[in-house]
Design a protein that fits this description.
The complex is a heterodimer of chains A (about 120) and B (about 110).
Chain A: E1 4-7, E2 10-13, E3 18-25, E4 31-37, E5 44-50, E6 53-57, E7 64-70, E8 73-79, E9 87-94, E10 108-109, E11 113-117
Parallel strand pairs in A: 2-11
Antiparallel strand pairs in A: 1-3, 3-8, 4-5, 4-9, 5-6, 7-8, 9-10, 9-11
Chain B: E1 5-7, E2 10-14, E3 19-24, E4 30-38, E5 45-50, E6 56-59, E7 62-67, E8 72-77, E9 86-94, E10 101-102, E11 106-111
Chain lengths: ~120, ~110
């Protein structure tokens, strides 16, 4: 199984809602990532989890709360979002983030969750 | 802030044409350069990862080169086919941090 599965594919939420994005991989990868991508812009790193622990937080506002319940799952909890948070949220995994050479950092991506905040 | 620049932003070519595009990145403290292909409505897919100056990688009709001293990488597609239509992203990592900084991509359309 060489896939990263993201759900839901599309999400529309109000600014007062609480919702979650989910990501799952069964490749035995030990690093998982959240990226945010707005149209015509590069994907921007939000969080890196390494061995189920938060390793990098790129100064993301606290209205985004990541969670890694186990080595296969990564969630992104959303609360009190703003319309400017509307974007494509991409999950990715890699064999490892900190060790194993550059090949271990090659990312396997999910297809993304398209979020619209009204 | 690490800037990764890709050019051109978009490109239309005829089926059978060969094409290439560029990724520019800071040359200091280089660790690795990745290329990904992203077809519409699909997941970005890794093409190549390169680490050494002068590296050349090839996968079928697609190849890439790396110049770490001057900070650029080229992606070449020989004999483009409509199925090559996609956005091609490069990503650069530096130093010990290893997180990838992506460019905005080159959107390739191959016309039949």
């Amino acid at each position: 199984d060489t896939e990263v599965t993201q759900t839901p594919k599309h999400l529309v939420m109000g600014m007062t809602n609480k919702k979650s994005l989910k990501c799952e991989q069964h490749m035995g990868h030990r690093a998982m990532y959240w990226y945010k991508q707005k149209a015509k812009k590069p994907p921007e790193l939000m969080f890196v989890y390494s061995y189920e622990k938060l390793s990098i937080n790129e100064s993301v506002p606290s209205r985004f709360s990541p969670e890694c319940p186990n080595s296969s799952l990564l969630n992104l909890h959303l609360h009190a979002l703003q319309p400017e948070d509307s974007a494509l949220y991409l999950c990715a995994s890699s064999q490892d983030h900190w060790t194993g050479g550059a090949g271990a950092n090659v990312l396997t991506f999910g297809a993304g969750s398209r979020l619209t905040v009204l | 802030i690490l800037n990764v620049e890709q050019s051109p932003q978009s490109l239309h070519v005829q089926e059978g044409d060969s094409t290439n595009f560029t990724c520019s990145f800071p040359s200091s403290n280089f660790y690795a350069l990745h290329w990904y292909r992203w077809e519409t409505a699909k997941s970005p897919e890794a093409l190549f990862v390169m680490t050494l100056n002068g590296d050349e990688k090839k996968k079928g009709r697609i190849s890439a080169t790396l110049n770490t001293k001057e900070g650029y990488s080229y992606l070449y597609i020989k004999g483009s086919q409509p199925e090559d239509s996609a956005t091609y992203l490069c990503a650069f990592s530096a130093g010990s941090a290893r997180q990838l900084t992506f460019g905005s991509g080159t959107q390739l359309t191959v016309l039949p």
